[in-house]
Amino acid sequence: MIASIQGPVLTSGAGWAVVGLGGLGVRVEVPSGRVSQLQPGDVVSLHTSLVVREDSLTLFGFASEPELAVFGHLIAVSGVGPRSALGVLSGLSPAEIARAVSAEDEKPFRKVSGIGPKTAKLIVVSLAGKLDALELGAVDAPAASAPGDGAAEAVAEGLVGLGWSQNDAEGAVADALSAGAPEEHAGLLRAALALLQAGRPGSRAASGAAR
User: Fold this and answer.
1) Which residues have C-beta within 8 Å of that of residue 146, sequence separation ≥ 6?
2) On the chain, which terminus has fewer CB atoms closer than 10 Å, C or N?
């Protein structure tokens, strides 16, 4: 069982990335809406699930443990395969999934390609009570008293998924916002990455430069 993978991105596309590991290139399927904008050379750290079929071995990767846990619950639902589960996690965060299940609301799941009304209802029924123990609040909790709360949290989570520490990621996002970076996701991510790669004070790059 491959529980996690960390290494440089060799190449990537919509919903997948090839990660370098000990001289090998390992393809990992990722949620297109949650782990995004991976570029060659970026260092990524993912929690993984290896799905074994008669004719294939497919590795699915996630930026957070709650995403991995929800993926495991989803593929246990009758009629929901790994690709459909990945589709759910591409459009919905773990907290959004938990809220929909708690509210017995199948509409968010019906928006996912390949999931019909019956399967959406089955997801809600099957997952009832199973997501309560997950640490979901921290995944979607807005950063306290920070501008662009939703985008800031998402960008910080994405940077952690790329291998930066939580402190460096949150610090870079805060510095980028203070410097006037746009509060929308793509612009903020570019600005925060630029600071990290340039070696903002206390960042991983800065520590390396000091050595």
Assistant:
1) 152, 174, 177
2) C
Q: What is the pLDDT of residues 163-190, one digit of tens each?
A: 778 888 888 888 888 888 777 667 778 8
Could you tell me if 70 and 134 are in contact, meaning their C-beta atoms sit under 8 angstroms apart?
Answer: yes
CB atoms within 10 A of CB 121: 14
pTM strictly above 0.85: no
Helix (H) or strand (E) run with residue 125 in it: helix 117-127
C-alpha 169/C-alpha 167 separation (Å) is 5
- The angle at the Cα of 163, spanning 162 to 164, to the nearest 5 degrees, equals 105
Tokens read off for 141: 């909790």
Identify whether the C-beta of residue 44 lies closer than 8 Å to the C-beta of residue 53. Answer: no
Tokens 């001289």: give the residue. Answer: 23
Q: Are 42 and 9 in contact (CB under 8 A)?
A: yes
Q: Are 146 and 177 in contact (CB under 8 A)?
A: yes
Helix, strand, or coil (residue 46): strand
CB atoms within 10 A of CB 163: 18
Per DSSP (E only), the strands in the chain are 4-13, 16-21, 24-29, 43-53, 56-62
